Amino acid sequence: MLQFQLMTDQDRKEAAAIERRRAIEEERKKRIFNPRVRLIGNDIEALKQQIEEKKKLDAERKKVDQVFEDQAIKYDQISLALEQKEVEERKKLAQEINNFRVSFQKFEDRREFDLNDPQAIKKLLPARLYDEDPRIGISAAQKFEGEDAAGDERKKVQREQVKSWLDQQIEEREAADKERKAADEAYKAAVIARDERAIELDVMEKQCRKQLLRACCNFNKALADERECDKKERDRRDKEDSMAQMYNTMMSDMMTENPDVSLSNLGPNRRIGYMYKGMSKEEKAAFRQAQLAQIEDDKKRRADERRFQMEWDDYTNGTQRTIAMMDKQLARKQREKNKEIAEENKRMAVDHKNYINYLEKIVYSNKPTAAFYEQFNKSTR
Fold first, then answer.
1. Which of 22, 49, 139, 191 is the most exposed place for a label (fewest CB within 10 A)?
2. 304-355, pLDDT tens digit by residue?
3. Are 171 and 234 members of one domain?
4. Residue 271: phi, psi to the nearest 5?
5. Residues of the chain with pLDDT under 50
6. 36 belongs to a structural domain
């Protein structure tokens, strides 16, 4: 039985992908293996021409857009002018309508004005002018029992009563004024008496003050005399104290420079610094002897230092000579070592030269043929 192998959708997809890759590879070969494109490159003149054409198209497009924009602006201006004109006409028409209404359609000229008159109630007569008003009927509800028909008479009586009350109040006020005036007179008399008494007391006070002032002056004078005496006595005592102080100062140990006052209680050879006045002759002689001894010691010390320096110089010179000899030995050994290295380098150079000759004459003697180069550049990958 024969078995046929059917192609599935997956196989078709793979075949299509392979064909697509093959087509891409062929296009790539045409582009890469084309010497003109690979060496020269793209057509610059054609590209420039395309750029110029594109610029021209852009310029024409901009020009057309500008024309449309200008027309749109013009139409907008026309529409705005028409709209403004329409608004003005509407305003004018509304003004004319209002003027017509004001002139020929007044509110008081309407047929129903009597129904809408705001002053209608004010223009009407009262519902009742007096009790015998003929307009008042039985059912008018304008006259009732218990009304104050004698109101005028009653008001007259009330006015007379008020007048009598006012007269009585006036009399009472006049009496009160008289009493107040009498009280004011009595108060004035009392004030005058008080002022006179105050004047008398003031005079008495002034006299007392004069007497006190006189007594105070006498006391102050006596006190001043006493202070003057005390001052003279103090001046006399101060003068005596000053003379005594001057004498004591002149005869003091400090002025006479007594050397014994500088002795300290802390030891026989201790001195008090702020009372010390200098050395005696014996102390100066001892001090000089000590200085001479120090000078001799200093000379011996300097001689010892010079001797030590000479010995140190001899040691240093010997050490330097030894180091110089060692440096010479090291230099000689280094020269011998450098000579050995040079010999070794020469030998290695000869070996390298022989190796290069071997490579050039034996190893690299096989030259490649054209078939070797043709195996390259067969694919773009």
1. 139
2. 999 899 989 888 888 888 898 898 888 889 999 999 999 999 999 999 989 8
3. yes
4. -125, 155
5. 1-4
6. yes
- Under a CB-based contact definition with an 8 Å cutoff, are residues 380 and 28 in contact? yes
264 and 170 in one domain? yes
Return the structure tokens found at 298: 């200093």
Is 148 part of any domain? no
Q: Measuring CA to CA, how many Å separate 357 from each of 39, 180, 193, 362, 368?
A: 40, 163, 164, 8, 20
> Has residue 261 been placed in a domain?
yes
Residue with tokens 């924009």: 69
Question: What does the pLDDT look like over 287-297, one tens digit per residue?
Answer: 889 889 999 99
Out of 278, 303, 321, pick the residue that ends a domain.
Answer: 278
Same domain, 285 and 270: no
Whether the full predicted model's pTM is greater than 0.70, yes or no, is no
CB 143 within 8 A of CB 128: yes
For the CA atoms of 84, 87, 91, 96, the dihedral, rounded to the nearest 10 degrees, stands at 100
Task: Map residue 143 onto helix, strand or coil.
Answer: coil
pLDDT tens per residue, range 25-62: 888 887 777 776 666 666 677 778 888 988 999 999 89
Q: What is the CA radius of gyration of the chain?
A: 76
Whether 165 and 265 share a structural domain: yes
| SS3 state of residue 362 | coil
**Roughly how many angstroms between the first and final C-alpha of the chain, as a whole number?**
46
- Number of H helices and number of E strands within the chain? 9, 0
Residue at 154: amino acid letter? R
Q: Sign of the C-alpha dihedral, residues 235, 239, 245, 246? A: positive
Does residue 168 fall inside a structural domain? yes
Q: How many domains does the chain have?
A: 3
| H helix runs in 251-267, sequence order | 253-256
The Cα 86–Cα 94 span in angstroms is 12
State which residues form the domain around 311.
279-362
Whether the Cβ atoms of residue 195 and residue 201 lie closer than 8 Å to each other: no
